[in-house]
Every structure is written in C-alpha cells, then in structure tokens.
Write a structure and sequence with these properties.
Blueprint lengths: L18 E2 L8 E8 L7 E11 L1 E6 L2 E2 L3 E2 L11 E7 L1 H5 L4 E9 L21 E10 L4 E5 L5 E4 L2 E5 L3 E5 L8 E2 L1 E2 L7 E3 L5 E7 L3 E4 L5 E17 L6 E7 L2 E2 L2 E2 L10 E5 L7 E3 L6 E9 L10 E8 L5 E5 L2 H17 E2 L1 E2 L12 H14 L3 H15 L41 H13 L2 H21 L32 H22 L3 H22 L11 H9 L5 H17 L14 H6 L4 H9 L7 H5 L34 H10 L1 E3 L6 E4 L9 E8 L2 E9 L6 E16 L5 E10 L1
Parallel strand pairs: 7-16, 13-23, 31-34
Antiparallel strand pairs: 1-15, 2-8, 2-11, 3-7, 3-9, 4-5, 4-8, 6-17, 9-10, 11-14, 12-13, 17-26, 18-19, 19-24, 19-25, 19-26, 20-23, 20-25, 21-22, 27-32, 28-29, 30-31, 32-33, 33-34, 34-35
Helix pairs in contact: 3-5, 3-14, 4-5, 4-6, 5-6, 6-7, 7-8, 7-9, 9-10
Length: 759
C-alpha cells in the first residue's frame, strides 16, 4: 500500500510506512525489527530515532529505552497536529555489535482508549499504529536508515488490557508466541509536526506514609499527597498470584472513596509467572489521580519498602515559590502546585482521575496566569494554543469548542447543550476566551512576540464567532453559556445556576478579550485588526454600561462576580468604579467573607478588592476557613485544589454531586493574586523586561517571601511587618541589568537596576 508523500520536516520518515499489529486479541503488541549494521557499532558517530504513533508507544533500541519519557506522543489534535519525537539513541546503538534491534510496545492511550466521559466512550480510530525511522551516521559520513515497513514483526506482550481510565492488567504467564507479520496502516504525513510540547516524564517517587487494614478488611496505603501517576514495585510470589491495585483521592467511611471516579475503574493488576528472582511491575500505559491505594493479593506482608507511587506529568520546570507566616496559605499554594503538576499531563486537563481528564478551556482560562508563575509553561501552553486553533478550524466548527483536543465532537449529539441537535456554532465566554486569555498570560510572562503572532489567529477565530453571536443590542446575551460555573450557592446538580447573570459575565469577558486582541494586532503590525478589535471592545463596553451599570454603581445581578469582573477588566468610569468597589466590599462582608464566586469571578475578586483600597476585605476573604472558602479544603486536609468548594462536606462525606473532583486547579487561581499582590512580584513589561515589586500587606500575615525564575532572570522578594509599631521591611533581588520599581505600602517608590535592595 502506498502512503502520502512526505512533505513534513522529517525526510528520514519519507520511506517509512505506518505499521500495526495483526489481531492479537486484547494483548498489547510488541513491534520489532533487527537489522545488520553497515559498519561496526564502534564506528557509529551518531544515531537518532524519529517516532510517533496513533496510540502510545515505548521504544527500545538494543533492549534499552530510547529515553525516560512515557505516554508518547501525548495527546494533540490528531487530524492536523501529530507530534513526532526525535531522540538521540547513539549510546543505545553502540551497545550492539553487528546488529541493531528496534522494538516498540504499542498501547491505546488517547487515540482509542474509550475516552471522553459518560457511559459511552469515544475513539479516534480502531487501530493503533507506529511510524518511525532510525537514522545512523557513521564516522566516515556514511548513513543508514531503518524504517517501519512490512518487514517488521509483531508479538503479544504480557499486557492484556490497558486504558487511561480503567488501568493496566498484565498476565506474566502468557508467552509472546511466534512473530507475525505486521499490517500496513495509515498515518497522514500532513499531520506530522515537530515535538513542541514538553515530553511526559517521571518526576519523583513516594513511599506510603501509612499502611493499615480498613473496616472491611482491605489493605490500604496513604501516600500523604494527592498525586498523578501509578504504583511501582518488584515482587516475588507463586505462579498465578494476582495482585490488584485500586486508587482513589480520598477516603469515605474509612474505605476508598471511589464514587467520584464515576465509570473509571482506575484498577491495575498483575498475575505472576512465579519467577524466583522477582517480577517488576510499572503500568506505564495508564495513569491515576490518587492519594490512597488498596492492594489485594499481595504475597506475604506488604511494607512501605515494597511499593512506591511514581509522580508523572509533562516535563515543566518549577519557577515560582512562596512562603508566609500563615500555614494555611502555604498549604493552599502547595495544593495549587500539586494540582498543576497532576493536570499538566500532555494537555492542561480539568481533572486527572475520573472518566474525563479533558482539556477544558474554561479551567485554563481562569488559571493560566497562576500556571505561568509556578512553572515554565511557555512551550506547554503554546503548543496547546496551536491545538486550539487547529481544532476550532476543523469542519464543521468555526468557534472554540469546550475542550481541546475536542474528543466530544464524536458524540456532540449526546452531550449537554448539543443534545439532540446537529453541531452548530456555539461560542462561550471564558471557555472560548481561553484563546485570548492564555495567550495574554504567556505574553505577560515570557514576552515572546513570535509566539504571540502565532497565537493571534486563534483570537481572531474566537472573536469572529462571538461577533456573529451578539444580539442587535451589542450584548452577548443569547445562546448557551457556562457563566459563573460552580457558584457555591448553586445546587450540586446544577453547576451553571449562578447568581451572576450570564449575559453580564459574557459581555464583560468580550470587552477584555477584544482589547487584548487589539493590543496583539498592534504589536504584530496588523493595523486593520487593531482597529477592528478596539472598535468591538468600545461598542461592547458602551452596551454593557448602558444596560447593566447604574449611576449608583450597582451592576445587574448585584453579586460579587459581576463587580469583580467590571473592576478587574476596567469597565467602569472612576466615579462609578469607586461606588461599585464599595458595593463589592459590602457583598463580600455580607457573605461573612466566605467565597461567593465561581469560575468567572474567583480569579478576580481579590484583585478587585485590593486594587480599589479594600485590602482588608481581600485578606479576610483569602484567610476565611469556613465553607465555602479557599482554606476550608486546607482545614479538611486537602493536598490539591478541589473542583467544588465543598467537594468534601464537613462531616467527611463526599459531595453528592455527580461532578466531584479533588484535583481541579481552576479555583486555585487566587494564587496569582497571592504572588503578585501579597508577595508583590509583577511584570511591569512583558517578559519581565521591567519589573514592579509592590507587596501589599494585610491583616493575618506578618511576613512573606518567595522567588520567581522569570524570563529575565531570578527575582527574590521578602517582606515583614511589625504588629507593634507598624514598621515594614522589604528586601528584593533583581536580575542583573533589569530595571525595577520597588513600591512600599505607603507609596514610596525607588527605581533600581539589578542587585539586592532593602527598603
């Protein structure tokens, strides 16, 4: 069978054919080829492997892993952006003598692992396939290329089942069987792109902190931290012994709390072959979100030295740190860090544990600024934004879908607002605004104009879809909206029933997005676009003001979210802004300083308070421990951010809502305010080419310190205040050659360049 001619940046793959295994039942195949080297292995100067798959793969050269990454090639918009991994395998090729042996273990992954959510799962295709080329260069300049083609063979591995939701099962008693010819498959060469997103890797391992027997007689393990990954161990036992591992984020009634997993089984198992030297198990074709595990069938006594949890996520580097005098705030920051780690796996997901794990656009729209402080997400989120535009451009769409990649497109007639109807244009605020807001967060953090230029088409696509959705009044008051999703006053089963009017939220968000699109257009030299989007912003703001804002500062639906958005997005005239800010403070105080916002308002409510002089209200809101609040989950022992303010109720039972996750970063977006306002590290210019250090102390914190490895270099800040005399001390370290404004709480400002400074 012929394949599409290679027109990608991968000439080594031009002669390669995508291959798949023949029917091996449910067992994962091992594809293999051994070829003779044209020269002795000692004469190999370099060797590189180019590889990708529909599914996930683990490649080896001469019995050695090609690298430490897992779950390659990750998850992208397969139709148009299938990433190709390029790995230096010189050392592995040199391990051979006169031959080189290539193998690839192939799994289902995101391609056809019954993904999506709900009872009926969806897949991109039926068959998993592998495409690769090994390019060897000898010291005399001669080259040799080994490609996937019909000469490869397939055998069955011990993996009898593996999906991301349900887990991995292995039976070591099964023999591989005789090699069988592979089957030619199809991978569209036009979809191949260079690997731009960080690879998925193991990052650390943790031993259980406690092992005990539950009331039902189950052996339970507590790893002390809600994490994402899998369990790893080596064990010796009789042939036929079956060890089963179940995973959960929380306990309920002293047993595993598995109801939030919905249909995901999150169960791994191993049947031993009886090898007296021991058998190693690491289920790398799945992943789980868990703190607790249940182990059955373990031969003998299970100890903490026998088993470990492996933490897995995309290889993003930690860049931000924070510590303060308040232990609860410190734990909140730790929870945000761990939620980002667990959910930045291939794509920025909503949750890592249940039958979902999708790239929900609204979550990352709310959280992108926080994410860019805590980790270097420049490559990770840029790649995702390219996926966003690619997915939104696929027919019949012409708007930003709810998830990227859009696995829901395969069952849109059954899901939510699409139920019972053909796909139609349906842009949404916040979720669709991710095309703009995530790009804005990256521009602020990294200042990369070339990448901003590449992200601009996604902004245009979103805004054009919104223009078509506006009513004649100029308001975004028609069509489906998520709105202030997960308002804590909404019933558990109706997450969209928020206090904030959805049209007020949507129209406010449009102004923000149109303004940044106009700024982007100016920056990249698109004068017509700048004029167009600025005009849209101005028209929308005028309609917003006329319809929703009273002269007394009262904004329609009169709740914290609408005031937070209007203030944070600079939608109000100065006199009105002051009145609206005072009303926001009243609303927050009337709620007893408990959180009353959902996805829309939560990232901005503390900003709106502190930037309008209501610092004490902002701090009291942050430090409240009653439910709902940011510190309520901390008081309940949370080690990650929860999806709901009350994912676990005060009596220790799990929220009865169908949608309950204990690892959902969106509501942790307050961390951005903590980093920029409490600690005081702000970008005065994109990429921190100029810096503003402006800590804003408040009641409840005596000191704070932290650091940020910015695009311009490392920034360090520490401050303390005396409750006795009100004295304030600030120390800041600025990267060499970078100018910074140091601003004290009384407004005193000093401009410095590089070095360490104390005020």
């Amino acid at each position: 069978m012929s394949h599409t001619p290679d027109t990608t940046p991968f000439p080594a793959l031009s002669a390669a054919t995508a291959i798949a295994a023949p029917d091996l039942g449910s067992r994962a195949p091992v594809l293999a080829r051994t070829v003779g080297l044209k020269q002795p292995a000692a004469q190999v100067a370099s060797a590189r492997l180019l590889a990708t798959a529909h599914g996930v793969y683990e490649a080896q050269v001469n019995g050695l892993p090609v690298d430490e990454s897992v779950l390659n090639p990750g998850w992208t918009v397969y139709e148009s952006r299938l990433q190709v991994q390029e790995v230096d395998v010189t050392a592995q090729v040199r391990e051979g003598t006169d031959e080189v042996a290539l193998t690839a273990l192939l799994g289902r992954g995101w391609w056809n692992g019954d993904f999506g959510f709900g009872e009926e799962k969806t897949n991109y295709g039926e068959d998993n396939s592998f495409l690769a080329a090994l390019e060897i260069t000898y010291e005399d300049g001669a080259t040799q290329v080994v490609v996937t083609d019909e000469s490869w063979t397939a055998t069955a591995s011990a993996i009898t089942f593996a999906t991301i939701y349900d887990g991995q099962h292995e039976d070591r008693r099964f023999a591989a069987g005789d090699p069988q010819p592979v089957v030619v498959a199809e991978i569209d060469r036009a979809s191949l792109v260079e690997q731009t997103s960080p690879l998925i890797t193991r990052h650390e391992s943790r031993r259980p902190e406690r092992i005990w027997t539950s009331p039902s007689g189950r052996t339970l393990l507590d790893f002390g931290q809600n994490l994402v990954g899998w369990l790893r161990f080596t064990v010796t036992g009789p042939e036929g012994t079956e060890i089963t591992l179940r995973h959960a984020e929380v306990l309920e009634h002293e047993e595993l709390g598995t109801r939030p997993l919905r249909t995901a089984k999150a169960t791994d198992s191993l049947i031993l072959a009886g090898d007296p030297d021991g058998e190693a198990f690491e289920p790398t074709f799945t992943f789980h979100g868990f703190r607790y595990a249940e182990v059955t069938g373990w031969p003998g006594e299970l100890t903490a030295d026998d088993i470990e949890a492996v933490v897995v996520h995309s290889d993003i580097e930690r860049t931000g740190w924070f510590e303060s005098s308040h232990a609860g705030v410190n734990q909140l920051i730790s929870n945000s860090i761990w939620s980002q780690r667990g959910n930045f796996l291939a794509v920025p997901t909503d949750c890592p544990q249940r039958d979902e794990r999708l790239g929900w656009t609204g979550d990352i729209a709310a959280y992108a600024a926080t994410a860019a402080y805590q980790f270097d997400v420049n490559d990770f989120l840029h790649n995702w934004l390219l996926d966003l535009h690619a997915e939104a451009s696929l027919p019949p769409l012409s708007f930003v879908p709810f998830v990227i990649p859009d696995i829901l497109k395969f069952r849109r007639d059954e899901f939510g607002p699409f139920a019972g109807q053909e796909p139609k244009e349906m842009p949404t605020a916040i979720w669709g605004d991710a095309s703009v807001w995530v790009a804005e967060a990256l521009w602020t953090a990294y200042g990369d104009l070339d990448r901003l230029r590449a992200q601009y088409p996604g902004m245009v696509l979103h805004l054009e879809s919104v223009e078509r959705a506006l009513s004649p009044s100029g308001l975004w008051d028609e069509g489906f909206q998520f709105g202030d999703w997960l308002d804590p006053d909404a019933p558990p089963e109706r997450a969209a029933d928020a206090k904030a009017d959805k049209a007020v939220v949507a129209t406010a968000c449009l102004v923000r997005s149109a303004r940044f699109a106009a700024e982007t257009a100016r920056l990249i030299g698109e004068a017509d676009g700048a004029e167009r989007w600025q005009a849209l912003a101005d028209r929308t703001l005028a309609a917003f003001t006329e319809t929703y804002v009273g002269e007394d500062g009262i904004i329609h639906s009169d709740c914290a979210t609408v005031y937070a958005l209007a203030i944070a997005f600079d939608l109000l005239e100065p006199a009105t802004r002051e009145k609206s800010a005072a009303r926001l403070a009243e609303v927050v105080e009337a709620a007893g300083y408990k959180v009353s916002t959902g996805f829309a308002g939560t990232p901005f409510v503390t900003w709106a308070l502190s930037e309008t002089g209501h610092v004490e209200h902002a701090y009291r809101l942050l430090l409240e421990e009653g439910c709902p609040s940011w510190l309520y989950p901390v008081s309940m022992g949370a080690t990650t951010i929860w999806e709901r303010w009350d994912s676990m109720l005060p009596d220790g039972s799990i929220n009865p809502g169908e949608m309950t996750s204990f690892n959902h970063y969106a509501l942790g977006a307050v961390a951005d305010w903590i980093y920029q306002v409490v600690l005081g590290i702000r970008a005065a210019e994109p990429g921190y080419r100029r810096i503003r250090i402006q800590p804003t102390p408040g009641p409840g914190l005596d000191w704070a310190k932290g650091a940020y490895d910015s695009a311009a270099g490392r920034i360090e800040v520490s401050w303390s205040q005396s409750s006795a005399d009100g004295g304030f001390r600030l120390e800041a370290t600025i990267p060499d050659g970078v100018e910074a404004d140091l601003v004290l709480p009384d407004g005193t400002t000093r401009t410095v360049t590089g070095g360490t400074h104390t005020l």
